[in-house]
Amino acid sequence: MVIALNWLANTPDFAVPYALAALGLILSERAGVLSLGAEGLMLVGALAGIGAQLILNQPAVSLVVAMLAASLASLLFAVMAIWLRVNQAIAGLALVFFCQGLTSLVGTLAEWTNKPTPGIGTLPLWPLSALPGVGRLFEQNAMVWFTLPLFAAVTWFLSQTTIGLRLRAVGENPQAADAAGISVTGYRFAAVLAGSALVGLAGAYISVVSTKLWIAGMTGGRGWIAVGLVIFARWSPAKAFVGALLFGGIEALIPQLAAAGVRLPQYFVLMTPYVVTLAVMVWVALARRAGDTEPGALGEPYVREERR
Amino acid sequence: MAEAALPAASPPSQATRPVRLPLAGRRYTLGIRQHMPWPRQALILACALAAGFAISAAILIAAGVPANELLDEFVVQTFFDAQNLRAVLFQAAPMILVGLAASIAFRARFWNLGLEGQMVWGAIGATAMSMYQIGPESLRLPLMLVTAVACGMLWVLGPAWLKLRLGVNEIISTLMLNYVAANLLLHLVYGSWKDPKDNFPYSPQFRVFERLPDLFGGVGSALLIAALMALLAAALLSLSRAGLYLRFIDANARVAQAVGVPVRRMIYTAVLGSGALAGLAGFAVVAGQEGRLTQAFYQGYGFSGILIAFLARNNPLAATVVALLVAALFVTGRSLQVFYQVPFSMVQLIEAIIVVCVASSDFFIRHRLRRVGGSA
After folding, report:
1. Model confidence, pTM
2. B203 and which of B105, B207, B263, B293 could share a cystine (Cβ 3.0–4.6 Å)?
3. The dihedral of CA A161, A162, A163, A168: what is its sign?
4. Domains of chain B by range and CATH?
5. What domains appear along chain A, each with residue ranges and CATH number?
């Protein structure tokens, strides 16, 4: 019982990076830009967050710095994929490897590796946190609480606002959107930059809030898992939220099992998130049906001069 | 496209001499360029590479390498020093193999990003033969090679099947399997396969007959295997029916299917061949370089393979040349690490910068600027 409660209480902490990264990816993929660069952008966010934290020691500022840094890095991808019409898979992969090399280099040269930072405290959601027993579930950090309205806001933005509608139009049928006077390039740029800021925030959450230090390559494939998660969620923020809780729950279970004295081979346990991602991808493929919500022009560069 | 048709729209009096507008008043639009003569294509590629090298040099200087040492470190020391050249050739064998592996998979439009995982499996398979002493001593090395190839193929079979049968995105599936393979490797080298002699996380050293022998002048036989594979791949892709089919599939898989090309079978063949070559690369590292299974031997090969295939446009012979250059970059990266404390991740950063520059340069080959309005 105590273990189950601990597990549930720790799940949000592990779920937030997946949730934020998936939300950011949905934003840019709904505009038709296939964002494979999440793993790299998360690393940029994580490093920038820790750097700002070590220099300024203001968690809120650090998180904003991380978002800006990730947006800036994604500019490289946006210019390649949107302006220069480079194959979006190649541009995304190049961004990941660029960011991996850059963050590892900067982290080493600036000597930010393995330096602990204080992180941010918990923000108990008062009357609920005073409940006996389950009160622990409501003692989360501020970022966990911040994620919830953020999801609501993005869902509302995509489904209820004119700008959100136009953004989806650009991702669904850029030719039609262009003919209707919507700037395909402008919307795609904005979607990539805004989405990347969220992905960077996810990375900064891992470094600044969760582990409270920087290690090169510390995101460990979570960006790729988020890419898979978005496919699993069929580009819907609400489903992505559920998926993030699922992955967070699995990751939170690992230390709890160890604490409970369950002896499992360590490295096989570490494989679980990746195996689950694969399983989820297979499940989605099997369950795929008509009326799919995949953006129609996902991954296709828009070239006005090419008549179709 | 219709450049010649434009002036005709203007009145005859102006047609002979277009009015030059001030720069701010001119408007341009992008057009698709159908064809560009190859000398200009080569010029653009050279400009892109030069830009990539310049950015890389700037970063290296910022990271603390003296500017006047750059040329010396990268060219003179690497290619004109016998010992370093041998190191480059030593490094080149697995590099050529991963470059070929990526090229063949990309020819079938399959994003095999699992090269590292397949290398790990190849290495594990080869090491298992040594650990459990399977087969007679004289046959041990060939047996290790065959096992490595089989293991690499098996590790890519899953993603290939999932993609062709269920449409599962192979980028995600192959990458996820990389992490699984890497954790399995750690499980082995920290667990039951750990060398009992000194308790470091690697397997016991291979016996002499389990290691790839040196040929002339210290060049390993791994390089010979890699060169043979490159020739074989080049011959198959340019001369065989399978190579022709793959070109069909690369151009348009649906049309290829319609005219009777066995698309699925060809994609399976290419992808399994890719996995086999990656497994072979893993074998080349453990049996040719390390002499044992180590915990991080595969790192950096996955992206290097993609880079090589990308720069070589999936051509096996060009891939061999590019692989030699990437191997030189690796060797130089290691010496920069020793002499100037530049982290090895610099190598990956330089690779990424070059990919970005070359990928972007394609835009200038495929598009042209056309002036519209006013002046015409």
Report:
1. 0.89
2. B293
3. positive
4. 86-341 (1.10.3470)
5. 2-287 (1.10.3470)
